[in-house]
Amino acid sequence: MSCNCFGASSAKRKRSTDRAHHGIDGMEISNGISLLEIEKVLREGGWGKEVRNTIVIVDIIRDFNILRNLLVTTKCFSYNELRSATDNFHSRNKIGRGGFGTVYKGTLKSGIQVAVKTLSAQSKQGAREFLTEINTISNVKHPNLVELVGCCVEGANRILVYEYVENNSLDRALLGSQSENHKLDWSKRSAICMGIAVGLAYLHEELVPHIVHRDIKASNILLDKDFNPKIGDFGLAKLFPDDITHISTRIAGTTGYLAPEYALGGQLTLKADVYSFGVLILETISGRSSAKENWGGTQQKFLLEWAWQLHEEGRLLEIVDPEMGEYPEEEVVRYMKIAFFCTQAAANRRPLMSQVVEMLSRNIRLNEKELAAPGFFQDSSRFSGPSSNKKLTGDSSTSHQMSSVPVTITQVTPR
To answer: 303 near 295, Cβ under 8 Å?
Structure first.
């Protein structure tokens, strides 16, 4: 069954041919082996003792090709330039920390402020995410995507340089300490939801090849001085060609935002981002974290579960953040119902992001008869959807038995 959230079909979008393919010769790929050494082996032939105890050869060649092209398309900073810009990476300039390193505010000699993301030398995953992030967005320009300014690769240092975004992350704005919280009224929150939706529609439908972000969450949404949202952190992103329906891949993402078909079976489609966006709408409206199982009183439900329960009981407005002030009740309820359409258990029942943009921007009638219970997934022992606690129902491509899922889900990070 395809998505029937509303009647009108979305207009065709003009596709951009923006692409991203990049690279650097001196970078160590694994166990101290540099790309120059790999290039020598490739030139001379053979994979003898020169390249040993390293990652799969095909991955090395791919990373080599990405890196070798990087100098052509991406500005490269020296380590000293960035050390000077951040006052030797002083703690007072620290503005964030992610799974693979720390982000500092910096000022270049030109006076331009930037965000400097240093990848942890201890992170085994950092090099791959570094390459992915550059490969994905170095040539992509959009007002709702964080712009990559350049990078630095010197010795063991791997650093990404981004435009500086004044109001930090949506996560901090909604859930931070009192001193970090901003007064986000409904006009700001609805504009944030719309901006994220537009950015995702661009990644999914206009960019060629399409991009699935895989880690849409409040801490990866940055807010500029006017609270316009920008999607950041493309370290887990995947390119998604037109001629495939899904990618089978290792599960990666953040607890509370994972689409059930992806978390259960590793079946990645663009609809995984749609699911995460639906959860993000609920967070933005409620001012609550989706990653914490502490909503719903004594029943200890996750945010999406609790919101659906309130919807069924006709008490959905109880989830609204009291800090939001006055708001148009009908519009807020409509946004939350759109969130439920985005989080349907079966991926093919979720709308495209271009349809979500239309649903958010126009006061059109939602086809609520098509709305079923969302799919909830938290860990390998707990899944619920419209039919049972252990099985996701739908067509064969989106139905998985819990018994077929490994107990450990790799690379799922807490907020």
So the answer is: yes
